Amino acid sequence: MLRNKANFGVLEGFLTVLLGEPIRIVEILESEGNQQRENDKFNRVDIKARNSKDEIIIVEVQNTREIYYLERILFGVAKAITEHIELGELYSQVKKVYSISILYFDIGKGNDYLYHGQNSFVGVHTGDFLEVTTKEKDAIVRKLPAEIFPEYFLIRVNEFNKVAVTPLEEWIEYLKTGIIRPDTKAPGLEEARRKLIYYNMDRAEQLAYDEHINAVMIQNDVLSTAAEEGREEGRQEGRQEGRQEGRQEEKIENARTMKSLNISSEVIHQVTGLPIKDIEEL
Description:
alpha/beta, 6-stranded mixed sheet, 43% helix
């Protein structure tokens, strides 16, 4: 469900609660890296997406144990970085990559269900964090290495054994049990519930639902078109009335001018078409 382009809202909700900031997915990218040589490794991932900040997000769902899993996700991130910078481009075009692994196997020892890895440079003697300065567009820009280097998230689904309280915990609960609580407010989960209702239908029910939605869309389109036509007709009538009022005002003004020149009402009537009674009242 997460990799379906029609379900951007579900994926955006999951990433928003995990990364702690609003995430908008722009596109789902090709999830298998191109081979440079015949014996080159494929970069197989479940989801590779680009967000609104032009960062790359890799999401993998792993069900079976893999001995060299950390090495594989490192390779996947390195492959994603090199695939999205062209020969001759500046290194400033290197994309920030987030690697998110949803693991359904025991990867090792640890008491938490969520682990986060991020590059940083710490002073060996001082303990301070290195801050890099660069010059961009004649301005000095300070960056932490963590703003550039990839970030890794390992979600150990089977290790989650608590009552879900936060939106992130609700998402982990869903990934483990497939259950979404009816009162959820977690971003993406309400939409996921609606999608799951559809996916859990048999083929005949899905076809009937699709036909119903199609009929509703056609009906809404017809109503929208009729409303727009009505508004356009009203605008045309308004313009017509405006033109008629303008011509009437012009006739009255011409009649006043001719009357000031002592031209008879009969002549003014013949020229303007105004009733003689109206002309005499001017």
